[in-house]
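haha ok so turns out i had the wrong file open the whole time. this is the CORRECT one, sorry everyone. sequence first:
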Amino acid sequence: YAQPCRLGYLSNGQYVAVEATANGDGTYSFEVPENVEGVLLVVKGDANGDGIVDVSDILRIKSYNLGTDTLDAAQLFAADTSGDNAADVADILSIKAHILGKTTFVW
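then structure:
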């Protein structure tokens, strides 16, 4: 996939991120621990799951933080651009900077 993604596996109700490894040819690989039965691949910053990182993802995270909307474990995993296991203001600012072209997400 052309956009930076996150790969994770479910453990105790939360997704655990698997670090991406650059292959040197512009592609990335993930090494999943043994005994993991399933994984989830998400677009980094895509809180609403539509495959696109845009303002609607920011609005979704804002609503979640205001308590007017919910995010399931997969949506929380995708929204967490900072890797701190939360969908919060830091992620909103990161997504905003990404949308404005001021920064790019890294694998």
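The beta strands are 5-11, 14-18, 20-22, 28-30, 40-43.
again sry for the mixup
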